[in-house]
Amino acid sequence: MPDIKELVEYMAQSLVNDPEAVVVEEVEGASATIYELSVASNDMGRVIGKQGRVANAMRTLLRVAAVKEGKRVTLEIV
Amino acid sequence: MASQAKGSVEVSAKTVEEAIQRGLSELGLTRDQVEIEVVNPGRGGVLGIGAEDAQVRVSALPVEPSVEMESPRVEAEGEPPVSQPEPLESEGDVAKVAAELLQGLLDRMKVRARVKARMGDDLAEEGEEPVLILDVTGDDLGILIGRRGETLRALQYMTRLMLSKKLERWEMVIVDVESYRVRRRRSLRQLAVRMAERVAFSQQRVVLEAMPAHERRIIHIALRDHSQVATTSIGEGDRRKVTIVPK
Asked: At what angle do helices B91-108 and B150-167 cross, to 10 degrees?
């Protein structure tokens, strides 16, 4: 399902200086779907935030979408 | 398109910009003479399906004493009202951008909800400036609030980040879901007053449950002029608690 991937892309692209470098890979794990987000190296701070605050906000919102689709998801920034 | 009190009209049009222009010519005023509130940013819809007109309220700002109340309309015969291309500066534009960003986020979260932007002071403390508030409404939106408002905080944080990135400056915006913040604020104030009475009566301090910063602030401000109690916070981070002590 591409929907959650789109959500990750939307958030990441809205936060970075280089939206074209945003790539999201969807990987089926044993117990959850893993979304691997990569951005330009100088944009890393923008998607992680101080003490991971931005990444955690993205995870919280991702969880809402996942509940709607009845699946388990995790977000990793690679 | 119902007009309200003198000097204020509500206008609908295809886009926010169009509605503003219409409101301005109806009032015979220019952009710097009015306050603009985006009641509904509207949406394009797909092939007109689900499209919704944008709606704004254009209100005349208080005028100089020399200007008569019944200021005659400036009839711009033949020539349309002068409108400079506006950069993303006016309140209406910022409100529109903010509402669109949040709507885009909610759509991708598969949450069926509507966003309305308004300038409001009901989520500010007395004497504070009105701020841009994005009201999210829909069915069964508890999922957007989360335990103790955790999800709502993430939603607001993400909206602020996206908006600030887009405008390239920090912009204050509050996101509320089904008036959760308004209700929470009311109950925190009631709690503050009740606990203050108890402290004043018993002369024993009361420690409230842990709350995020903006909620603690509501308690502090509610009791700052209280004659018999004072407030402080104890603990660190997520565990920080307001304490009400006798004076």
From this structure: 130
Measured between CB atoms, does A7 come within 8 Å of chain B? yes
What phi, psi does A3 have (nearest 5°)?
A: -65, -50
pTM (predicted TM-score)? 0.68
Range of A12's domain? Answer: 4-77
- State the Cα–Cα distance between residues A71 and B106, nearest whole angstrom: 18
Within 8 A of B165 by CB-CB distance, chain A residues are 14-15
Per residue in B83-98, pLDDT (tens digit) is 544 454 577 789 999 9
- Please give the structure tokens belonging to residue B69: 């109340």
**Chain B touched by A64 (CB under 8 Å):** yes
Residue to test with chain A: of B161, B166, B171, B173, most A Cβ within 10 A: B161
Count of domains forming chain A: 1
Task: Spell out which residues of chain B touch residue A22, defining contact as CB-CB under 8 Å.
Answer: none
B63: nearest Cα among B22, B28, B23: B28
* Edge-to-edge strands, sheet with A73-77: A23-28, A33-38, A73-77
- The CATH code of the domain that includes A59 is 3.30.300.20
B154-206 pLDDT, tens per residue? Answer: 999 999 999 999 999 988 899 999 999 999 999 999 999 999 999 999 999 99
Scored b (16 or more CB within 10 A) or e, B174-195 reads: bbbbbebbeebbeebeebbeeb
CATH topology of domain B180-247: Ribosomal Protein S8; Chain: A, domain 1 (3.30.1370)
- β-bridge mates for residue B46, sequence order: B49
Whether A22 contacts chain B with CB within 8 A:
no
Residue ranges per structural domain of chain B: 1-62, 91-178, 180-247
State whether the Cα torsion B200-B203-B207-B213 is positive or negative. positive
CATH class of B91-178: alpha beta
Which value does ipTM take for this structure?
0.95
